[in-house]
Specification:
Helix content: 25-40%
CATH architecture: Alpha-Beta Barrel
Number of helices: 8
Strand content: 15-25%
CATH class: Alpha Beta
CATH topology: TIM Barrel
Distance between the termini: 72 Å
Order of helices and strands: HEEEEEEHEHEHEHEHEHEEEH
CATH superfamily: Glycoside hydrolase/deacetylase
Radius of gyration: 24 Å
Shape: globular
Number of domains: 1
Amino acid sequence: MRTKLSIIIAVLFFLVVLGIFAVVRFDNLLASVHRQFVDPVIIVANNMAISYPPIFPQSPAKHDHQPGYLMEKPIPQPSGTIRIPVLIYHHVGPIPPGTPPDYYVTPGVFALQLKYLQDNNYQVITPQQFYDQIASGNNPTTKEVLLTFDDGYLDNYLYAYPLLKQYGYSGTFAIIVGKLTDTDHMTAKQLLDMSNNGMIISSHSITHPDLARISNAKLQEELGNSKMRLENITGKQVNVLIYPGCSYNGNVISVAQSIGYKMAFTCGSKIDNKLAWKYRFYRIHIYDRMDDFVNRLAGIDKYPY
């Protein structure tokens, strides 16, 4: 009787050990699958710890997250231009319920976009590198892309910045200086942290006005004071202006040039630029869709929703 009991206990012990081993192996498998999309990152900001992204990123229903993305045929490159896509982001974070997705890219999709750039041998460059390549008059020998983020939202610091660091990429952040004390925007301390870790801080004015419709005195204040305040925060020259609302005219260009900006960016649907446009370099808007992202790198500008 004791022998049978001993055998039963031994079998039960073996099954328990086997079960533990199976659970550990399964957890490791899940972690491996998760890492194929993006390693989770824990961010501490404003005394809150945030873990992201989920294994299945939040996204509108129409999104395509399949591993392969079909790219349409790239648009022809106009003569005399240099092909380096400049991408526009606004919010990088969860989409609030009931909010149109147009100005949001969710963290999971943003991670997939960065992974796509890495997997397809894109070099993520800075505005100065972009300018130098445009000035050379030649297409880059490798695929290059410039990433810009408008308005200085706090979610850029919480989500975009850690992922950019994880991939070793630089981002160019256009800051509305007058909103640095707003709770939904980045602080001066956060800007300094990003600037000290490879991110580029650029001006997006003080109050985000339509620059083409304000007085010269106000224009000088918006462009000059924003530049000076950002330089005081980062300890670095601010040479890049990104027009609020993409609005500019000849007078805005003249004032920006006189203040000391080396280049300025607007919006549009072009992925090709030239040095003659250095105060109106074109950028293309990015949405929370992988299929659309791939096509926009090829210059295909179709509204995805």
